Recover the amino acids of this structure.
């Protein structure tokens, strides 16, 4: 079984943009792997000689009757259940938000390994764009740009170190 990286984060932080970048290689789509749930996007990627499976949780839409917070909680729990490693994305331009704090708290409770990834960091000073995210208590925030590709491979190499 390939190591599974799950992309988690509030809407609009860039999960799908990162997913697309991470699965750009040929034969990336794994839509018909047996046993996989339909409401999440699965893809394959490779960094160096190491292949991985990546999951984008963005296919789930908030359910009106339950509200977005409930839906985010459910989405996060389900996705994290399948994860070898969670990439928790936040938006370095928007800064730290209440939704980020809620997700961070959920992730800490799961006991899973989490990498805190600060997206949209292109053209920004690394120390400055990551500074406020240290308080989430999920380790050193790693700046990337999903749109431009900056630092993406380096972060995936870190993620796959133990595999
Ligand atoms: P998701 O809701 O978390 O899946 O986020 P999307 O991948 O749909 O991206 C939300 C918005 O952020 C889109 O307009 C993207 O073009 C933009 N975006 C994603 N990654 C980056 C990035 O690295 N830099 C900048 N400036 N914008 C980004
Ligand atoms: Mg998305």
């Amino acid at each position: 079984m390939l190591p599974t990286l799950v992309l988690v984060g509030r809407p609009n932080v860039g999960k799908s943009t990162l997913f697309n970048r991470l699965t750009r290689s040929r034969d990336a789509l794994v839509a018909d792997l047996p046993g996989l749930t339909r409401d999440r996007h699965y893809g394959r990627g490779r960094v160096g000689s190491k292949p991985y499976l990546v999951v984008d949780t963005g296919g789930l839409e908030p359910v009106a009757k339950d509200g977005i917070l409930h839906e985010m909680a459910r989405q996060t729990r389900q996705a994290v259940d399948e994860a070898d490693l969670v990439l928790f994305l936040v938006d370095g331009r928007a800064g730290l938000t209440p939704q980020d704090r809620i997700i961070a708290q959920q992730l800490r409770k799961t006991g899973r390994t989490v990498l805190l990834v600060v997206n949209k960091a292109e053209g920004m000073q690394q120390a400055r764009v990551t500074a406020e995210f240290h308080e989430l208590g999920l380790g050193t925030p790693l700046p990337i740009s999903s749109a431009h590709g900056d630092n993406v491979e380096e972060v995936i190499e870190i993620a796959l170190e133990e595999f």
